[in-house]
């Protein structure tokens, strides 16, 4: 079973400003309603530690592997529950330069594995809402940068 959640928001700021907010991991606890903590060596192939708190759902801490970290464009990781095939999530933040001083910020995740069927409702509701709340805060933070 596979499932994808995809959200996007138009931000009145350049990709550089949006990226500055996105990678300011130390300040996530202050403003980020979805990802409460992200730490580690943020390099492709490295494992990081991420703590999420979807609205009205149980939070969790996991250790995904960084798949892409392309300045001002993309940050992507893959997390797994126990071992591959149970519940895998490939999370992606994408910044699209609209060429007019604005950025389309896309946050998505592709879920695969045997548990996806059982978690579909939670993914559609709590997880998607967490993405939307974070997107709104990224917008707010980036648009405040002078």
TrEMBL record:
SUPFAM superfamilies: Bet v1-like. It comes from the Bacteria. The lineage of its organism: Bacteria, Pseudomonadati, Bacteroidota, Sphingobacteriia, Sphingobacteriales. InterPro entries: Polyketide_cyclase/dehydratase, START-like_dom_sf. PANTHER family: CHROMOSOME 9, WHOLE GENOME SHOTGUN SEQUENCE, SRPBCC DOMAIN-CONTAINING PROTEIN. It comes from Pedobacter cryoconitis. Pfam families: Polyketide_cyc2. This is Polyketide cyclase.
